[in-house]
Design goal:
It is a single chain. By secondary structure, the protein is mainly alpha-helical. The protein has one domain. 76% of the residues lie in helices and 0% in strands. Helix 2 packs across helix 8 and helix 7 runs antiparallel to helix 8. The N terminus is likely disordered.
Amino acid sequence: MRRLAAAVCVATLLPAAAAGHSFSDGLGPVGYLVEGALAVWVQPWLILPVAALGIGLGLAGRMRRALVLLGLGLVAGLVLSPLIVAQAIVAPPLAVGLVMAVVAALVPPARARGALPGLAVLTGVTVGADAIEGYHVIDMPPTLPVGVALGGLLAVAALGGAAAASRAWLVRPWVTILWRIAASWVAAIQLLYLALLFAP
């Protein structure tokens, strides 16, 4: 586990290919709110880590506290974005999401609970910082960063809630197995994405 954590730290610090999400001009408050949420939902390097966190929280049953920590991480990432990224950098959120997906897929929920608060904060910081591509929050329409934060929180709450509800409604081992398979697929997609990023 320590080697995996070290590899994530290295991958987070290495430069990677940039990708962009250009924000529109002239939208109203609701339009910017929706655009902020879509910045998280439509970009695979942002929605995959969020999906991994949602599945992990749904399996471990620690939604409320982790959602608060995720929200704090998103706010911190949005505020610190100019200091963290100069443009959309794909690797950091994917690296954190990969660790979260591996934890959700392979680690028993009772043992994973200790890692979830830290992973929730890291997911929030990397997704929030990357979603606005290094821009200053004060230079943006107010509802756009709010949309980013709400988009991340809603996605995690929806997936985590679906995982928790399905396990409570159908008390069968195969339900948990299906969610862990889903987490393994999310991990595999992120690993492939990272491999393609760093391919020569």
